[in-house]
Design a protein that fits this description.
The chain is α/β, with parallel strands linked by helices. The chain is built from ten helices and 15 strands. The longest helix has 17 residues. Bound molecules: phosphoenolpyruvate and manganese (II) ion.
Amino acid sequence: MIIIMKPGASAQAIEQVANIVRSKGLQVHLSKGDEVTIVGVVGDKTKLRGANLELSEGVDKIVQVTESYKLVNKKFHPEDSVIPVKNTTIGPGTFTVMAGPCAIESHDQLLQCAEAVKKAGASILRGGAFKPRTSPYSFQGLEEEGLRYMKEAGEATGLATICEVTSLRALSMAAKYVDMLQIGARNMQNFELLKEVGRSGLPVMLKRGLAATIDEWLNAAEYIISEGNPNIVLCERGIRTYETATRNTLDLSAVPVIRSKSHLPIIVDPSHATGVRAYVEPLSKAAAAVGADGLMIEVHPCPSCALSDGPQSLTFEQFQQMMEHLKPYSDLAGRKLG
Ligand code: PEP
Ligand code: MN
């Protein structure tokens, strides 16, 4: 449940309400807006029976939160969150572009990608060092060697870096080298991994599971935030449907749905959603138009030589052009492209 304080309620009144809640063994999460403060309550609310909180000084009303996710719920935190990542932020006002290769394949491949995506205006470099491949015989990633290249590329260009972690071992390694962690679609409900990234303190991008409902996705985010890490960005990357013309079906309606249910930013990954290079630009424009906070795009110096996801990867030139074509859309959405 949430306790909505009256506009301008005194700090003393807020503290008194919070203390009553804590004294019953429940957790308090304060959300201070410009005018109204919301006291979020997590735990067994039956313990508050008889506390008559609605009669406490400064309380406006009490609203029950029926959803199982609480801290990521917009009712707990009505203002949209802004997530800091290195020298940039993800959230209102910006249309963040993360770009780079599917997999880090070599020092030169990654450094070239970093230079190219930076020049085209991206602010975050992506690249997989641990690849969750469908076949165990496909390229599995350079692991720590790749992470070292990532750190070097981030330092050389000033770009923030993001890398997927697929296990607790990958997480403890990646945390030393990158600015942001990625939980991939296949691990969206790997709850032990979610709890651990929640404890890592690093910003996290949580991709939607291949067949996950929006409710399941938000509950997965709740696992991370409930461990004390509020720096979460959601990523819609397409879901499994009966359609075979694209690799997955991009659920663009997830963007306004998430916007109405959560304060977390949401970005769109048209590369994995479609698996087809030609569809990346039109869906990137659509993502800007529908109110997304940014994009994740796969880029490769030679897509036909790529060790993974070549057919959906853009060349440097295609990426540069896409960024130019995207600008009017991000302008119209009132966001700074980058
Ligand atoms: C990726 O971004 O490299 C990736 C594997 O994507 P997804 O988890 O969405 O399949
Ligand atoms: Mn990929």
